[in-house]
Design brief:
This protein is mainly α. 70% of the residues lie in helices and 0% in strands.
Length: 86
């Protein structure tokens, strides 16, 4: 079973918290990406290691957990040094 199929049964609240978007928005993104992938690979080729849905999940989770280095730097520094970094 792929990763997308295991997450779609989650409640709407769990899905939004875990993935970072609502199910209807996720399904729309997946349909658009799948259509584009199918169009690009009409002539064939080796099957991908990760499906379009898996790649979308990975990307959304990355953006959900991403902390810009600017914010990370401010969190890790001594409070007296923060003003010198700005």
């Amino acid at each position: 079973m792929d990763r997308v199929a295991t997450r779609l049964p989650w409640s709407d609240e769990e899905f939004k918290l875990g993935i970072g978007t609502t199910k209807p928005v996720f399904r729309t993104m997946l349909e658009i990406l799948q259509a584009d992938f199918d169009k690009l690979h009409e002539s064939g080729g080796a099957p991908p290691d990760l499906g379009v849905g898996d790649k979308l999940l990975i990307t959304l989770k990355y953006f959900r957990e991403y902390v810009p280095s600017r914010h990370r730097r401010n969190q890790e520094c001594n409070p007296s040094m923060r003003s010198k970094l700005r």
